[in-house]
Amino acid sequence: MKAVSHTVEQDVADRAVLVSLVTQKQKKNEELAEYSLYELVQLAETAGVAVLDTMTQYKESKDTKWFIGKGKVEELKAKLEELGGNTAIFDQELSGAQVRNLEAALDVKIIDRTQLILDIFAQRAKTREGIIQVELAQLTYLLPRLSGQGKNLSRLGGGIGTRGPGESKLETDRRHIRGRIDELKAQLAEVTRHRTLHRERRKKSGVFQVALVGYTNAGKSTLLKQLTQADVYIENQLFATLDLTSRTMTLPSGKEIVITDTVGFIQNLPHDLVAAFRATLEEANEADLILHVVDSSSDMRSEHMRVVAEVLEELGAHQKEQLTIFNKIDQCSQEEQELLTAPGEFLKITAFSEANLELLRNTIQDKLMGDTKTFRIPANRGDHQALMYRIGDVLETDVNEDAMVFKVRLNKEDYAKVAYQLTAYEEQLAQHEAGHDEGENQ
């Protein structure tokens, strides 16, 4: 496990001690608990927090009142006072009562993992859809915790946990908050309707759709940029890009497809976020092919792959055609590369190798277009000759007596819709030729 580095900047508004609770059940996989805390440090720094220190409490089960127990709360208070901290961030989700109790005892801002992730999303959302989804997720999270939040959210004049809907909205009554949630859901439904229309237009035009999915910071945006020369924001941090980005990519055959970068996944992704971002993540559901991008250099890549698989299953996209992309192999030794494996087909690449990118483009093409098949179409069947150009890429054409011969790399889905027609005409042509040959022999 990589060591946790702490940065302390006195002019940063939020100076925090990070706290993790490891129960008896979680202790069986202590490495995962340790990584979760390491990830919390990354999340905090991404949100602009100065991380002063970390604390881990080992306990049989969580304390319903204090979460980490009264004694550990006293220890945390002393550490905050010693280091000049004004925020405590917990690696697990807290109840409203626990937040109020901890705030009263520690007299600092209390933030949990869910609220921290929501705050990062609020910072990163740029499109109308992203902004709506973030506010919806924040309000859904905050509604049952409304009581006693005023002091917590107004403390120190802002910082993490206060972006998005803002203090003024949270001071209104629950009825107003529920009304705002209903309004946001209606707006999101309208945005989703427009997105669905765009998808349907793409499908009717015969354009293939490919979705990039993966754990946050796996290199999806870098891969999108290298494959399509797209102008996308890239940074080595969690959730560097939040809003959906779609770009056109040209396959080696010359056919254009649409490739979409989706929001990165993370372990313990808040359920409110999964629900609110369903419209965005449904790009994976509508895709003809899912590219699951994995950070090969991460010690926790197996866990990352498990998290992505779980979210895809929750979305109903786990049955889709998938290709696993082990990215960043340039950061792995030869021995580490040999250990990389996944169910189904997979590639090992670096996004900065043109040879690797060409291999990926060819593999995507093979996955989407399928096999190459030769068709003999009667010369007087212009409609079926035109059909050749709709079921795939025509590679060669030739004339054979009274028939046209087409060599086509197939689009599996489009070919399946008309295969019976083409088979019937091939049989008719064969019968016609057999009768013609028999007449000549006589």
UniProtKB/TrEMBL annotation:
Assigned GO CC terms: cytoplasm
Q: Where does GTP bind?
A: 214-221, 239-243, 261-264, 327-330
Residues where Mg(2+) binds:
221, 241
Instruction: Write down the superkingdom of origin.
Output: Bacteria
Keyword GTP-binding carried by entry: yes
What InterPro entries does this protein map onto? G_HFLX_dom, GTP-bd, GTP-bd_M, GTPase_HflX, GTPase_HflX_N, GTPase_HflX_N_sf, P-loop_NTPase
Q: Which CDD domains match?
A: HflX
Compartment list: Cytoplasm
Q: What is its main location?
A: cytoplasm
Q: Which controlled-vocabulary keywords does the entry list?
A: Coiled coil, Cytoplasm, GTP-binding, Magnesium, Metal-binding, Nucleotide-binding
Is the Cytoplasm keyword given for this protein? yes
Kindly list the cofactors needed: Mg(2+)
Q: Residues in domain Hflx-type G?
A: 208-372
- For this protein, what is any one GO molecular function term? metal ion binding
SUPFAM superfamilies, A to Z: P-loop containing nucleoside triphosphate hydrolases
Give start-end ranges for the coiled-coil region(s): 174-201
Role, per record: GTPase that associates with the 50S ribosomal subunit and may have a role during protein synthesis or ribosome biogenesis.
NCBIfam families documented for this protein? GTP_HflX
Tell me its family.
Belongs to the TRAFAC class OBG-HflX-like GTPase superfamily. HflX GTPase family.
Q: Assembly state and interactors?
A: Monomer. Associates with the 50S ribosomal subunit.
Q: What is this protein called?
A: GTPase HflX
Q: Which organism is the protein's source?
A: Paenibacillus whitsoniae
